[in-house]
Structure to design on (265 residues):
C-alpha cells in the first residue's frame, strides 16, 4: 500500500512562486524583488539596486497650527509644562486662575526665572524675621548600621523671639496656664478650649520659676504635603506657638504655623 501524504498545516505550506518576470524585467545583478501577499492583489515588483527604497520627494504639507486643539501655542506650552510637572488638579486650577488674573488685570509680573523667585522668597522670609534654612547631619542607626541624613532647618528661637517682639502678637498672647470649668448644678466640670487650658500647661508652669512663663511649641511633619527642595523631595516640618489663640496660629502671617524644617525622603 502506498502511504498517504502527511497533511500540511496552512502555516507550513510553501509560498507560491511569483510569476516569471517579463522580458523587460529580466533580473540583473543586485536587483530587488518585492512579492506582495496574494490577498493584496498587487503585482510583484522589481527594482534596480539604485532605485530600491527610494520614494518620490513629496514634502509633507506645512501645518501652521500644530498646537491645535489648544487655542494658541503658548497655551499648549503651558499645558505641556503642567503635564511634565505632574502637579495635582487643585494646583493646576490655582495656577490657571493666577494666569487668567494676570491677563485680565494687566498687573506686573517681573519674575524671570527660578533664581528670581528664590530671591523673592528669601527677601520675604527676612521681612518677617525668619532665619534662612541651614543643613545639618542627623545620624540614625538602621539595621545595626549608622545612616546619615541631611536635615534642613531654621533656628526655632529666632522665630519665637521675633514673634514675641511683635506689638500685636504680644497683646494677644496668653502667658499663663488657666483652668476652665462649667457648673452643672452640682459640680464644676473642667473643659478645654485652648491649649493653655490643658493640664500639661498647668503642670509645666508649676515646675518653672514663678517669674518664668511657659512657651509651648508644637512640631510635626506634614506628610500630606510632599515638596521639592534643591532637587530633592521631602516633608515640611511645621511649628506653631500654642500660646497664641487658634485664630492666630491656624491662620496666615506672623504668629501662624511656619515651616521650620525639611525632612528628606
Amino acid at each position: 500500500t502506498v502511504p498517504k501524504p502527511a497533511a500540511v498545516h496552512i502555516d507550513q505550506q510553501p509560498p507560491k512562486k511569483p510569476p516569471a518576470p517579463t522580458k523587460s524585467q529580466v533580473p540583473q545583478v543586485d536587483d530587488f524583488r518585492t512579492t506582495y501577499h496574494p490577498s493584496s492583489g498587487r503585482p510583484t515588483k522589481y527594482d534596480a539596486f539604485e532605485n530600491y527604497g527610494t520614494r518620490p520627494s513629496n514634502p509633507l504639507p506645512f501645518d501652521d497650527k500644530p498646537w491645535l486643539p489648544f487655542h494658541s501655542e503658548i497655551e499648549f506650552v503651558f499645558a505641556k509644562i503642567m503635564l511634565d510637572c505632574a502637579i495635582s488638579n487643585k494646583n493646576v486650577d490655582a495656577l490657571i486662575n493666577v494666569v487668567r488674573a494676570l491677563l485680565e488685570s494687566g498687573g506686573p509680573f517681573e519674575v524671570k526665572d527660578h533664581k528670581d523667585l528664590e530671591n523673592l522668597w528669601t527677601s520675604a522670609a527676612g521681612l518677617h524675621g525668619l532665619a534662612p534654612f541651614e543643613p545639618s547631619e542627623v545620624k540614625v542607626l538602621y539595621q545595626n548600621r549608622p545612616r546619615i541624613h541631611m536635615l534642613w532647618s531654621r533656628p526655632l528661637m529666632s522665630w519665637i523671639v521675633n514673634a514675641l517682639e511683635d506689638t500685636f502678637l504680644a497683646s494677644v498672647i496668653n502667658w499663663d496656664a488657666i483652668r476652665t470649668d462649667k457648673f452643672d448644678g452640682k459640680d464644676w466640670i473642667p473643659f478645654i478650649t485652648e491649649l493653655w487650658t490643658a493640664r500639661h500647661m498647668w503642670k509645666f508652669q508649676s515646675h518653672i520659676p514663678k517669674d518664668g512663663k511657659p512657651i509651648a511649641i508644637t512640631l510635626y511633619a506634614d506628610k500630606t504635603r510632599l515638596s521639592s527642595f534643591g532637587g530633592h523631595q521631602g516633608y515640611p516640618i511645621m511649628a506653631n506657638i500654642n500660646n497664641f489663640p487658634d485664630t492666630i496660629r491656624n491662620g496666615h502671617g506672623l504668629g501662624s504655623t511656619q515651616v521650620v524644617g525639611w525632612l528628606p525622603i
Notes: The two ends are 81 Å apart (CA to CA). Strands lie at 32-34, 45-47, 134-142, 145-153, 180-183, 188-191, 217-221, 227-229, 232-241, 258-264. The chain has a mean pLDDT of 80. DSSP finds seven helices and ten strands in the chain.
